Amino acid sequence: MTDLSAIPNLHVINHPLVQHKLTLMRKKEASTNSFRRLLNELSMLMAYEVTRDMATQEVEIETPLEKMNAQMIDGKKLVLVSILRAGNGILDGMLTVVPGARVGHIGLYRDPKTLQAVEYYFKMPQDMQERDVVVVDPMLATGNSAVAAIDRVKALKPKSIKFMCLLTCPEGVRTLHKAHPDVAIYTAAVDRQLNDHGYILPGLGDAGDRIFGTQ
Ligand code: URA
After folding, report:
1. 143-179 residue pLDDT tens
2. Is 182 a catalytic residue?
3. Residues 187, 191, 192, CA angle at the centre, nearest 5°?
4. Label partner for 71 (CA 20 to 30 A): which of 1, 63, 81, 107?
5. Residue 64 gets which letter from DSSP?
């Protein structure tokens, strides 16, 4: 079994603000309103890390005082791919930080018996071959949805793919890394384990229900 420390592209974002907000979200008494607000704030903070290596180019601009060469993001706009429905909870925060990003959606549900991902929706922006992609889902649990989503995105041959979640567990990291070793994983925490129903322990419960107030 792969030791997680042997996975070089697993990035656990240990920033105190990220950890603090995640702890508040985990609490069972957190309201839908505060869960959503915290997820929004966390997504902004995590976007900062995920985009750290974006390419920039030097452009000439004029300040009110003189001309200068300054850095701007290079290339076609980033694509955020949301795994429905919980992935949508991450979009607002990320789009606040990267407002020009394009957005793709993949609808996958987990078959409750097999825990395998079944696709029901797929819509991506144009020119995927010229774009960098960040696939987002708050929970990387079994890893099956993430693998299925990345299989589909990879077939469109984007320049690069990263995966961003809030929480994961050793099973999810191993499954995703085994299927897609080239995809860097960004998370705020790696929890202890999965339970028999595919939930992360200690986790934060069902992210979709907590974001949308459906339970
Ligand atoms: N999806 C969730 O929303 N929560 C989990 O713990 C696992 C998958």
Report:
1. 999 999 999 999 999 999 999 999 999 999 999 999 9
2. no
3. 155
4. 81
5. S
Q: What 3-state DSSP class applies to 174?
A: helix
Query: 4-51+77-212, which class in CATH?
Result: alpha beta
Report the atom number in ligand 1 closest to the C-alpha of 204: 6
User: What pTM value is reported for the model?
Assistant: 0.94
What residue owns the CA closest to ligand 1's atom 7? 199
- The structural domains of the chain, with segments of one domain joined by +, span 4-51+77-212
Burial class (CB in 10 A: 0-12, 13-18, 19+), 9: middle
* Pocket residues: Cβ below 6 A from ligand 1: 86, 139, 141, 198-200, 203, 206-208
Is 53 considered catalytic here?
A: no
Q: Determine phi and psi for 75, rounding to 5 degrees.
A: 85, -175
